[in-house]
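Q: Two folds, back to back.
A: First:
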Amino acid sequence: MNLSASIPPTHQAWLLKSPLAPHVHAFTTHLQNGRYAAKTIKGYISCIAHFAQWMSQGNLPVHRLDEHMVAQFLVHHLPRCDCSPPVMRVPHVLRAALVHLLVVLREQGVIAEPTPRPATSPTNCAATTSTCSRCVV
């Protein structure tokens, strides 16, 4: 897929000037190998361009990316996002694209595998189940 024909120029600049630039081809190939539709691939590339812009603004290196960083983007950046339109702001679409990005970066050995979190329960957790997303009931 030709990047210049698939996403807006602003997104191209965000992506190609970011720490994710070396991984765009692998990301696209991963989606193509998964038989994703061209429209979906285009949308997901725009999603990671938005994420790349956020990374660049925060000087976040690629090797620090993980599920926690994705959550930070979705929970803290998105609600008050003032990035130049058009940008994807639909959390479930962004999350789907970013999960694929993490898979690709792990396959390339760029980021570590996720470390399993210990299961907690209301009986051994200081938080309540209503405030603790890790609680397993």
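A: Second:
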Amino acid sequence: MNGEILMPAKRRLTMRQLRQMLRLAGSGMSSREIAVVLGIARSTVQDNRSAQPRLD
């Protein structure tokens, strides 16, 4: 590995988690609150929220 620092792979959400995350986001919950409810990292929520198209 030659002294490289490897970052852990981002966790992929199941379809159920993704749907629940979108419902919670639509109800106005913050990324931090959603992460606590789903038991995942806030960065995972943020990455998945930014990947979803906005329907405003």
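Q: And?
A: Helices lie at 15-26, 31-38, 42-51.
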